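Practice problem: predict the structure.
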Amino acid sequence: MSEVATAALREALAREGLLVGTQGTLPETIAAISDDSRRAGPDSCFVAVRGALRDGHDFLPQVEAAGAAMAIVAEGATTALPAFIVRETRAAAAAAAAAFYGEPAQALQLVGVTGTNGKTTTVGLLRHLLDAPETPSASIGTLGVLLDVSLKVLPAPPAECTLRFDVDEATAIRRLNEWGGQPLPISASAWCDGVLLLRLSGAPAGLAAARTRLGGDRVDDAAAAAAWADVREQQHAFFGLHDDVALWRIAVPPTTPPLGLGRTLIEWHGGQRWLVAGCDAPTVARIRDTASAAGGHATRFRGGDRRVPAFHPLPPVLAALNARLKQAFDPAGIFNVPARAEAR
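Answer:
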């Protein structure tokens, strides 16, 4: 890689509103840039990114010993190296790397897909639709680059209906598990604030028999469609967050009794619990300890204090295995970088 002027990095950081100041006499050029201290060397720039499990600032002594030319840091006092001091090192890593490599994204047509459910399917469909011999398409996510995807498309069910049951949380979980062991055409379930919705999908005769067996009140088809869309797209009133709380996604065995952590929305027949709760240290510990005790895990899905790790900490043995798998599949650290998936 040819050398790149540090002025290009300075301009990119300033353009993104990240640059706070400089420290020391910066080199005129650098020949490499990385957020991995093991790759630091002469003429290189190290970006001290703060992650969920590690803080790049803790590795600055090793970077200095390796002879790095400069660093990008959030706190100038953490290193004797010449440095750009920035507001957020993770965002700075992206901006500086893009400048170093000549803004490669400008030569691409990029489509970003965000949301709650259906992202992978949408990306796969778009990749197939946009792919052409003269303009090949690919996709990148937390697991890697997808160059080819096979999709299985299922036909729409001949009929659907939604039943409503006014039950408490414990009763809803018990019934969902009882029904899950029976030959019933249940395709979705959701419980919140004392109301359990159950969607049946299949042949009309099968739905009629299931309705007789289950009871409950049938929901108007239009209202049912709107309700399921609100849950799927997280437009349900439950998902409206205040500034001081986070949305937690808790995965537990479906038979797990009520967790007693706060207001909850239950999906996947009891296997997925959504929780609205704070991000203070005692609350986070209680949520994750409760999920672990039930044999599950808790993810800070969105909102709340961003300093709280999004992913549930892995046990030491699994964390070591996870690190070895990442190294085996992606030894160059190209795909599953900390900015995309810190703990997985």
